[in-house]
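Late entry, written up from scratch paper. The run itself happened at the end of the previous shift, but nothing got recorded in the book at the time, so transcribing now.
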Amino acid sequence: MAETQTVVSIEGDRFLINGRLVNEGRVWNGKPIEGLLFNSRMANAIIDDQNPATRGVWAYADGEFSPERNAREFIAALPEYHAHGLRAVAINMQGGSPQGYSWNQPWQTSGFLPDGTIRPDYLKRLDDVVSGCDRLGMVVILGLFYWKQSHVLADEAAVSAAVTNSVGWLLARGARNVLLEIGNEVDLVFHHKIIEAPRCHELVQLAQQRSEGKLNTPLRRLLVSTSLTRAPRFPDNLMACCDFLLPHGNAIHHPDGIRLQVLRNRNASSYRGQPILFNEDDHYDFDKPDNNFVAAIGEGASWGFFDYRHVREKFEDGFQSLPVDWTISSARKKAFFGLLKQITGP
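Output as recorded:
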């Protein structure tokens, strides 16, 4: 299988695509944005639901839910995202809550079998997404584990096997446009302790070591991290090994909180100068002069849009809620992409 033409790499605390800083030379409101990788959380782009009791809930108005249609329509929307300045999409092998936030999650959306084997249909859809992004020069932020689906894996050996199998596929695919996110919000409670923040560095290092010298990129291996949602900063064990940092802004209700979180990470004694990339934030206010997006830019951090369908909203609303309308159709989507286009320029 031919390797991707698109190559993501890191230089200092900035991202490059094909050897050039993202948004090279661009300044917005007096702030340099070159090297910032603006992204959107599209966690459920490749998932299916194996639970017949919940699968019907995701039906389209004109037919039952189809994972192939879901992925196909997502890929078809990528050129429009790209035209507005989006350069990365964040997806997950175990998906994310189709309800945005929900404690009880009976659906079964894991791309892993109990022993860590990857479902072949997920790999086909993942390949299609990697290829679709590659054609546009876009990056895929690929998450492996989601807390409410981690119980699918039988034990820690299966978790490690899932990482190893995922890395093996990415290497065989020559997926040079992929950033690997071990787990989504690993400071939450997972079914297996090895995924959680105190031990997640074991899996980060496993992915790095398994890919060492095997990828035709400047670093010669995959770039690997994991994300956190509640921690005030990355703990030292993860700071020491992650190639980039993935904080989340969902619990940060004022832009100054974003600024503080970036500063806390940068001022940590274990910080090594990595890029800081928010790849999930459900705070908007895009019409206001200050918001979480603008605050991240001011601190030289990348930012990611997290959009789900709120109560009483329509099909057009939300990029995570199934079934998904992947077009830029709702007022909230238009507001984000409008500001993004203004920031990134022509």
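The chain has one domain: 8-344.
(Scratch paper discarded after transcription.)
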